[in-house]
């Protein structure tokens, strides 16, 4: 875009974010830094519409930014304001006393953040590290899942993650059943170590059973060095006449199936421990908010070791006042991070 089209685009988006109404060419002629006609601005807006940055709700109406246009504005043209002094004081008062447990303070932060922004607030608490009592994996769609962790001390935590490709609700239930048979008294990291030990044991059993077949030339390894190695049997019907050979192959096949299940479960546990970074999600970019046409502005907070332990955010319409909301969310994250650090 040249300077004129960039200014037209910026003013359309800013006006839309402020009023929620389509923006017409005539109103922009009074705001432009250079004197241009309404016809010239209409031509520029048509070009921006052709580029997919603007849209026209009705034939005779003005223009509004598209989701792609909002993304471009947020990434490249957004002017973030300084934090308003009244907003700062309201947030400071929330954590000023630093009294009560962490959960209680985070609840107050969430309430204050919602009040300051007039939007729905989101606060993700630090991850719990106590022994786990029960685990459930819940499919929310092809690329979104929820894990529910019930800890031995009664704490319950929900975490969102993207499951490995090809997983179904049924396979998630099987994974949860397997994990729950091992989980008693273990933390999440200890449980991951247990699963990996079982993977190593299964891999060794396969190696032992397959060694004779490979040495005799009846089979060979395929996909060496890959995650999903394969044992390729040569001319099984002609070369393997004994029942013992068939039993070995069936045993190897079962071990392979078991190995893949445990690898999938190890992936689930790794994803459960994974956190998300700083992002502004707009509309359908976040699958959780795609149907409601909402946006999420979120920022992580860190503990004294500079490790991300949680996040705070605001959910609102796609025409959020990003210039005001971003510094509020950022400042709130810093406040919560200091509070968590002070409490060790």
TrEMBL record:
<dbReference type="InterPro" id="IPR036390">
    <property type="entry name" value="WH_DNA-bd_sf"/>
</dbReference>
<feature type="domain" description="Heat-inducible transcription repressor HrcA C-terminal">
    <location>
        <begin position="105"/>
        <end position="326"/>
    </location>
</feature>
<comment type="function">
    <text>Negative regulator of class I heat shock genes (grpE-dnaK-dnaJ and groELS operons). Prevents heat-shock induction of these operons.</text>
</comment>
<dbReference type="GO" id="GO:0003677">
    <property type="term" value="F:DNA binding"/>
</dbReference>
<keyword id="KW-0678">Repressor</keyword>
<dbReference type="InterPro" id="IPR021153">
    <property type="entry name" value="HrcA_C"/>
</dbReference>
<keyword id="KW-0346">Stress response</keyword>
<dbReference type="InterPro" id="IPR023120">
    <property type="entry name" value="WHTH_transcript_rep_HrcA_IDD"/>
</dbReference>
<protein>
    <recommendedName>
        <fullName>Heat-inducible transcription repressor HrcA</fullName>
    </recommendedName>
</protein>
<keyword id="KW-0804">Transcription</keyword>
<comment type="similarity">
    <text>Belongs to the HrcA family.</text>
</comment>
<dbReference type="InterPro" id="IPR029016">
    <property type="entry name" value="GAF-like_dom_sf"/>
</dbReference>
<dbReference type="Pfam" id="PF01628">
    <property type="entry name" value="HrcA"/>
</dbReference>
<keyword id="KW-0805">Transcription regulation</keyword>
<dbReference type="InterPro" id="IPR002571">
    <property type="entry name" value="HrcA"/>
</dbReference>
<dbReference type="GO" id="GO:0045892">
    <property type="term" value="P:negative regulation of DNA-templated transcription"/>
</dbReference>
<dbReference type="InterPro" id="IPR036388">
    <property type="entry name" value="WH-like_DNA-bd_sf"/>
</dbReference>
